Structure formats: C-alpha cells, structure tokens
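Protein in question passed on here:
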Amino acid sequence: MQTVTRIAKAMQDVLIDKANQMAQQSGFTERERELTGSSFIVGLMTGWQANPQSSLSGLSQAIGNAGTPISRQGLDQRFDKKAVRFAQAMLEESLKVVAKASPVSAGILSRFSSVDVVDSSIVTLPNALQEIWSGSGGNGDNASVSSVKMNVRWEVRSGQLKVLELSDGTQHDRRSRAHYDGVEAGSLRIADLGYFKLGYLAAIDQAQAYLLMRYKPRTIVYDCQGKALDFQSWLPQQVGQCIDCDVKIGARHQLACRLVAERVPLSVVRQRQERLRETARQNQRPVSPYLLEMAHWTIYLTNVPSQLLATQEIFTIGRYRWQIELLFKLWKSDFGVDQWATSNPHRILCELYIKLIGAIVTHWLLLVACWHNPRRSLRQAIPTIRGLAWQFGNCLSQLSLLLHTLKCLCRSLRCCRMDVSQQHPRAFQLIYDAIP
C-alpha cells in the first residue's frame, strides 16, 4: 500500500533535493542567490497544473509561491538550453520513483500477477525542433517534421507507470522500451496493433506469460488441421454471434493461440469505417475494401487458456485497454502537454517536460488517494488536485503541512466515484463483477 507519508517524502526528495542537485549539474544554477532549481520546477509544475495555459505573469507568481520571486521578463530569459537540459533530467528523476497501490484482490484482473497495458501517443512539435525530436511530416493543419512519441507501459492493477519513454515520433512502437522490457511469468500484457509481431507473441508465450491483442488484418490464420481460413466466410455472420477456437497464425511461425471473434452492430461498423476513410484521406490514399469489410468484427488473439478467461471475459478485458487512452486524454486535455502559447522552442520543450512531471506527480496522488476503489473516477479527481496545486507549491518544503494537505486530498477524493449503470455497464462493473 502506498502511504501518504511515503508519497510526501518522495515529492520532497524529487522536487526539492533532486531538483536543486540537478540544477547545479545541468548548469541551470551557478550562484546560490539566483533562482533555485526547486522553485523553477515546482513553480512551473504547479502553475501549469492550475492552468495549463498560464501566462508568463501567472508562472512568475507560481514560482514566487514556490519560494523564489522572479519577474516575468526574468523568467522568459531563463528558458534556454540549460533549462531544457535541467527539465529533461528532472523528468527522468521523477520516473525513477516506484509508486504503486495495493491492487484490488477481486475480479478478472486478479487472476494474473500483473496486467500491463502498452500504448503510445504523439505530441506534434514545431518544425524548429526537428533536430531534437524527429517527426514524419504528415498532412493537414498539424503537419510537422518534428514530434515526440510518449511510450507507456501501465500496470493497471496497482496503477504503476512502469515505463514512460519519450522517443522520436518516427520511431516504431516495437522499438520502445515499453514494448520489449522483461516479461513476468503469470502476467498479462495487453497491447495495441502497433506492437503486433508474431515473434513477440511467441516470446511472451515462452516466458509463461499471457498476451491479448487485436487481430492484425491479413495475418494468415490456420485451423487445427493446417487449412488456411477464409475469414469473410468463416467469421460469425450474425450480430452478437461469437466464435472461440484454437488456431495457428503466421505462414512461417504457425504460432498456436486462441482466436475470439464477435460480429458487431451496424452502428459500430459505420464508426470504424468512417475512421478508416478519415485515415486514408489524411494519408492521401484510397481506403482498402478489405479493411472496410473487416470492420464488421471484433477479433482478438490470445494465449490465455479458456479455463482462465471465458469468451466474454476476453472482450471485457479487451475493452479495458481503453483505460490507457483515457490516461493520454487526461495528460493532453487536463494537463495540456501538447499545448503552449509561445514560439520559443526552449520554452516549448521545458513546458512539455515539466507538464509531464506534473502529470506523474498527479498520478502519485491518485494512487495514494483513490486507487484502492474500483469505482474511482480520475476525471472527477483531477479538478480537485489542480485546485490544490498552489497549496502544494507553497507547503512542499514543510513535511507536516504537506502531510496535512495530502490527507485532506485523500478525504476529498473518496467521493470521486463513477455511478453504476445497469443499461450500459461500465468497465469497472464488468472487470470487478458486483462492486457496491
């Protein structure tokens, strides 16, 4: 169990001690009387937590609240290469903190030693940053030759962010550390199609771990007799109808696994086909008729035996993968990691790195305050944490005051609970069975 005291001390260690140390090492601070590393990081972090679009004036006030008054002109001058190097080093330091909660010992997820969800999200950057973070260009209003990819592996039982790695936007997902790092026996890894590779599936199986992924269109599938299957005639033809059978995948690997498929309603098909057409339009190519047809089914491949997960439980856990999409949405919409109001490339990078530090610290607070409750609502909790941002900045150096603020936060977030829906059960209802 993550204790309030441990989180408070971790915050002080990273945001005060490590910040001042890293500021010296990076060359950001050279004299004792100037802006401290801690005030710079904490002030900007809490200023952007409170308002992701805060002006220089608001940010200078937040830094003053954190301990070192500075004018907006003086702050503007501090956004340079040294500040970028310092902010990036601090992001790496914050990721070294192992923060996790005690997992709920009930429901489908408890059948595995851990449940890791792996995914990535792109932040498009100005062209001027191409030499630092390379992008693919793209089309439309957001086209840029510079972008950074946030690669994440998230253990959803304990809430631990096991990996948060930044890479060039052009780097393939499968080259990320979030993808290839060690696999724990008895664990379940849920990954998006960007990580689909038959050799990877085989390695997971050999490690006595489990994997759940969507089927990648055009991957050859054989029945148990070695006959290649014609998907469009073999898959369920009626909405709601399911199949669950043992197959072998890949012409060369012939990897044995389990295929679970369901025919989806027409409304879902239309949404999927619209996304396919939009993607094709953005990439300036025609949409594939085969992909349009495959939109009629939800198909999963897994090595989890049926004794461990029944057919409908596969679809339930597959749906739970969207939790990481919600995490990325919080980082972007609530913390504004992909937003800035400046053309200064150094300030943009500082803003990206420090906003991510704020997202990580907020995640620590969520773990200690409400992760134990399966009905937790991160969306409801975020405004409360943001409202306390300046108070955290002001009391961080005094452990007793920080503990008091954290305990008040824990009491408040007990009320951040999602409602139960009988008509459209939420993910937590399906995962944790009957939760009161």
Notes: Residues 60 and 71 are 6 Å apart (CA to CA). The chain has 17 helices and nine strands. The chain has a mean pLDDT of 90.
